[in-house]
Automatic annotation (TrEMBL):
InterPro entries: FAD/NAD-bd_sf, FAD/NAD-binding_dom, SQRD. Pfam families: Pyr_redox_2 (PF07992). Its EC number is 1.6.5.-. Coiled coil: none annotated. It is an enzyme of class 1 (oxidoreductase). Keywords: Oxidoreductase. Residues 3-289 form the FAD/NAD(P)-binding domain. It comes from Thiohalorhabdus methylotrophus. GO terms for molecular function: oxidoreductase activity. This is NAD(P)/FAD-dependent oxidoreductase.
Amino acid sequence: MKKILIVGGGMGGTILANNLARRLRKELDNGDVKLTMLSASDQHMYQPGLLYVAFGKVMPDELYRDQASLLEPGIEFHVDPVASFNLDGNQVATASGKTYDYDYIAIATGSQAKPDNIPGLMENCNHVYTEEAALKTWEALSSFEGGKVAVVTGVPHKCPMVPLEVTFMMHDYFQERGLLDKVQLHYTYPIGRLHSLVNVGKWAQKEFDRLGITYETLFNMKEVDGDKKQVHSEEGTTVDYDLLIGIPPHKGMETIEDNELGTSGWIPTDRATLNVEGHENAFVLGDTTNLPISKAGSTAHYEAEVVGENLAAMVKKGRRVRDYDGKVFCFIEAGKDRATFASFNYTTPPDPQPPTETVHWFKLAYNKLYWNSVRGLL
């Protein structure tokens, strides 16, 4: 019997598990393959929906499903997070003290926002990366009556379009409340343009200029002074604020770093095969990789499809059949019920088109279709 172990029940792990369950249905039914998922939670959350919670457009309970309900028959599911990895011995140990042997392992433990990594940021900023934070942001936005709103961005962070999206959505939000003439939106970014992707940055600059949103680049957060309501940068500059919206830096999960699998929780990953470097039977996907591409849901989705196809082929034929090309697809909410998107891979950069209402409604539809997507049906 071949044992496949999936560590992590987020988007990447769930799509991979369902993909494998369908590709290996005969082998699962015959007892030739055992497919196991270990997760830290019995709940699955649609994380991009937190952006809409922050604006009162979605209630938090709409973002959750029971994880077991999303899995194909034949997948053995346990809420028992992995505490230690022995990749050389093909074994993991869990928080409950159990051990699991495997022939193949896929690690998709995700990432987490770490506002506490920047002095003063956690105590003074609002963000959209946890349910609690998104609700706090909604409260802050709904009670704000005017002044300077600063958007500050830490790196690396997941959902690469969030700094832009939250800025555009605040512009609309304050306009709808009749406060736009009393609000100054000021956007900062750590490198010398408004986004890590060149063409996205150029597109955003034109949109910001049109809307009167001010911005500055080469602003890397050093610390936040909540008493003076100031953010200081590593470059020696300062931004004042009345309301602070932060995009916290992210790290991988502690179990990855604790087991010395990678720095800051990112596992060294082969960009084509998605193998853990040095381990042909171990794979990484989603935010857990150290690949220099966007940490986004679509990244995890496309990687899961590649790993699923390859793992099934390795079980059946003993070899891989395809490489991952770095494909990513990100919607970008652009305000006024308009959106565009960025589609790119390792070799082809994105080329965002003018925002349209059609793309906006397609993104809202995807928020509902996500539950089919995570089942691997889209």
